[in-house]
Amino acid sequence: MQVANPAPDRLLVSVIVPARNEEASLGSCLQSLVEQTGVKMEIIVVDDGSTDRTREIAQSFAGVKVIQPGPLPEGWTGKNNAVSAGAKLVRGEWLLFTDADTVHKPGSLARSLEETRTKKVAMLSYSPEQEVHDFWEKAVMPVIFAELAASFRPAEVSDPKSAAAAANGQYILIQRSAYEAVGGHAAIAKSLLEDVDLAKAVKSSGRKIFFRFGGDAVRTRMYRSFAQMREGWTKNLALLFRAPLQLAVLRFLEFFLITATAAVAIFEMAEGKRQAAMVCGIVCLSIVTLLISRIRKAHFPASANALSIFGLPIFAYLLWRSQLFHKQGKVRWKGRSYAGSARAQVGTAASAVRAECNEAPPHHI
Asked: Would you say the pTM of this structure is higher than 0.90?
């Protein structure tokens, strides 16, 4: 059965913002949301046990509903519990799950709804423009997002014929009926990679998803210190890549070859051996050129791309650390401890969705 998406100005969108100690960013996020035009909307902030000014900031915005998710059920991750609590109260035909560290550009919500209509999809996700400020952010973030761009190709993710599925939890716009049909976040309650796993469930149900870089719609600064960045990527990297340790070795070797050939070139030049220096210099330049060509696909400023060389060994370290912490069950995020990878549940959930779809006609959104 073909389902036509209504025009954006006739829709009610329920925006759900999970927030746990987000006083540094929540105000900018909510300001950008309340200023959206061309769409009817409600905004629900789920204050997930914050101990800072998060709740106070949320309550300062007229019309924004602030709730608490209640105690964390055994086996659930904090974010899944928070967004599920928000989803129980929504009135919208569409749900927008967005993080407290995002800033939404004027008119972006109405445009994203129009994009779901033209693409005829049940779920749309944007990878936001990433803000990077200090050295660590500029060096590491482009390296990671370049690898993500290579592993989760938007064209494949958006192709109904491909099994590839991905999403970015900072911006997920999903039809309410599709969300409920796959069991929502409750079906992936244990997942630490809930955005990708929700996309897998939706696509496995026979519905269409669309994923792209969304710098024209939303931007974010994910981490504000190296400690935050280390904790966040320790939680995610081992789940995002199939062979994290092999990738860590590859990227460390890339860094070693760049620095070694550069050092040898300088040494040989100092010794007056210009031909040897030139050969080493060409090898070094070739490796750097390949690196930069890969990094540029991640949509970061030139200053960050230039520092990405120094991000290679840090990325390798974070991959190793993520794999180790998941294996040892020492994963932590926002003051909570998790046992580690829960990817086995994803396969079970996806299988259940596929089984249900085999008993009913496929959906065409």
From this structure: no
